[in-house]
């Protein structure tokens, strides 16, 4: 029996998961320990992270989780968030960037790094988000994966 090829949405989700795995690897190789979500705020490890950490309601009032919550970054001592966005083909994900920026500004409890990559973003979308850094509360930085690795080598 032949297997059904993955849909475009399934492929996009798989690609996003791979980018999240890369971020997790960077954190782990930098000495951070993954802890259960429920223990993130109380864990004893100084350098720790949790995946899919709930932050409460987003701007629409529905429950929201962030990709990574991180403690122990020297320049962000009170905690940080890393959000991962991947877009390999053109689509509607880049239209979600203003939604992300508004949630970061109004709902995210810690300074946030957005790791954004893939070749399918609409022209100007990434530049728009990078341009919001000085204006959106809690938007600390916007990096491609290679920029994130460079930053992590200096800052983690």
UniProtKB/TrEMBL annotation:
Residues 11-155 form the PD-(D/E)XK nuclease domain. Pfam families: PDDEXK_11 (PF20472). It comes from the Bacteria. This is PD-(D/E)XK nuclease domain-containing protein. The lineage of its organism: Bacteria, Bacillati, Bacillota, Clostridia, Eubacteriales.
């Amino acid at each position: 029996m032949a297997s059904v090829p993955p849909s475009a949405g399934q492929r996009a989700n798989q690609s996003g998961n791979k980018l999240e795995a890369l971020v997790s690897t960077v954190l782990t190789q930098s000495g951070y320990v993954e802890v259960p979500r429920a223990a993130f705020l109380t864990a004893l490890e100084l350098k720790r992270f949790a995946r899919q950490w709930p932050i409460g309601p987003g701007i629409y009032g529905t429950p929201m989780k962030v990709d990574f919550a991180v403690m122990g970054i020297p320049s962000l001592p009170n905690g940080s968030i890393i959000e991962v966005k991947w877009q390999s083909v053109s689509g509607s994900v880049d239209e979600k960037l203003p939604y992300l920026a508004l949630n970061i500004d109004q709902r995210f409890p810690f300074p946030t790094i957005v790791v954004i990559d893939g070749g399918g973003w609409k022209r100007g979308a990434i530049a728009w988000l990078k341009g919001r850094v000085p204006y959106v509360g809690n938007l600390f930085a916007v990096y491609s994966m290679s920029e994130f690795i460079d930053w992590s080598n200096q800052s983690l």
